[in-house]
Amino acid sequence: MSGHNASGMVQDQPRKITILLVDDHPLLRQALRDLLQKEADFEIVGEAGDGEEAVNIATRLSPDVIVMDSSLPKFSGIEATRLIKEKHPKVKVLALTVHDDDEHILETLQAGAAAYLLKSIFTGEIVQAIRAVVAGDMVLSPLIGQRILQCAARYPIRPVSLAFGEKLSAREIEVLRLTARGMSNKGIASALDISLRTVKGHLTDIFSKLRVGSRTEAVITGLRAGFLSLDDIQ
Fold this sequence. Notes:
Number of strands: 6
Number of helices: 10
CATH architecture of the largest domain: 3-Layer(aba) Sandwich
Strand order of the largest sheet: 2-1-3-4-5-6
CATH superfamily of the largest domain: Response regulator
Distance between the termini: 56 Å
Helix content: 40-55%
Number of domains: 2
Largest sheet: 6 strands, parallel
CATH class of the largest domain: Alpha Beta
Radius of gyration: 18 Å
């Protein structure tokens, strides 16, 4: 039987990245929509103007990515992110905010955000960031990335309960260290002389054990739990 159906070859088209826009300013949401809907592989599935609405819509639609403002009515962006990630750990939250202080950024990342970008970069960088978080890459604005990782490493260590009581293997810690230095999967594979498929497998296991959904979350959790140190991110 051929791959054709009554509607042509629609089934052969790649699945689009579904996106929820969350901001209490309608004009900014419209600007984001205008920017993102130009991308053929993006689909805006909903909008929310406050944190409570964001949680409800995210629970109903489970989008691939949520572009989340931090200053929202009802629930803050941080609280909304935390609640959404508890119910839907695979949803990627991209924080888009005006705040650039260490404490706010770190709290947002600890809540489960996979990316943190400042609104001042309102350009195609957001498009790139969305594709990057879907691919599982680490996305932090260059102005804040290293600073925040160092800040996280200096905070008191918090115990992390690994899934099923498992431990990170020596190889998984090596992969996590190279991830913290911003290496791509291909770079990690080359550095450790292992296949790309093996790197992806290790990252999948790391995410599962740490109960996170992105590289950014894994690195922040690794720093806070003591699996990584400042030396590992230099």
